[in-house]
């Protein structure tokens, strides 16, 4: 099983594979379509039923107890960032597939032990790289994002998510018929705590809060040459000033918050025109939601007054607040016990990054486990977790799913 995992990871890395060894597999792109086709083939090869819902979430069902509608879902995502690695999301989907297979075999050998079914899920657009917001498919499934609104999300070229899913053949019919009992996700840490501590498994108990604010800086186009400096209303210069302010405020706040400014769009983006419209995404993350929000408020006020002297106005294009979420305590306790029973070292921890499990927790008790990431590196072609560490995660996943489908409640 372990060898199969590494072979599968290598096979999936070819879809959207980049020359530097990374993966660029944006949601609902042709590369994503090819990876989905490969997953569908692997699902069918294992005799599992495949269903696709209208937002493109894929479900593979193992009917351990055909008379029961209740199912434990295991999954993650196949889409990647433009500079993605080969483990982020894909590891969770492939380990999930092999775990479903292993648990189904165990259930067949132990009649009447399983009390609920098992489902593998691949959630659409977890990354939010091509379509915003992120966690799209899992949020639709959780009922916190209306399906039609998700289908109407547009990418940078104006392509609707529903149309992109149609183009790759993954806009499905209806939600599958099972009733979710629990959700479990296995993922690479994308941070360095496990590696630094020499720990095998991280069991996530909750997530940091995040505030993501997209600002549009409105200036005026003019010739970059003759236009007198004092009359220019340069939106990019204003954005640069705001970005610098953003980082300085985070540093001086002493809160330990994480922050970034990214995804800059410049219009008209000609070397000879002062930029008239610039959009930047700012984010603030902290374990405490109130701190993340306060930092955002303080930054917004500061940015407005900082760019005013440049004749540039600020419009808030998006202001998304993600609360500090708690995952299911029973699932976390079960995951910790399972890892330790298998002889692995395990700790509970919080996640800074968003994950489908956090979106799904709104509908179904959800659990999230991490394996170490070398150097904490992620959203990078050099993202790496060694085979032994990946195998340990898979072993814990199999045992945890077995306990979840067989436990009395
Ligand atoms: Zn991921």
UniProtKB/TrEMBL annotation:
SUPFAM superfamilies: Bacterial exopeptidase dimerisation domain, Zn-dependent exopeptidases. The keyword Hydrolase applies. Gene3D superfamilies: 3.30.70.360, Zn peptidases. Its EC number is 3.5.1.87. GO terms for molecular function: N-carbamoyl-L-amino-acid hydrolase activity. Keywords: Hydrolase. It holds the Pfam family Peptidase_M20. The keyword Hydrolase applies. InterPro entries: Amidase_Cbmase, Bact_exopeptidase_dim_dom, Peptidase_M20. NCBIfam families: hydantase, PRK09290.2-1. Belongs to the peptidase M20 family. This is N-carbamoyl-L-amino-acid hydrolase. It comes from Labrys monachus.
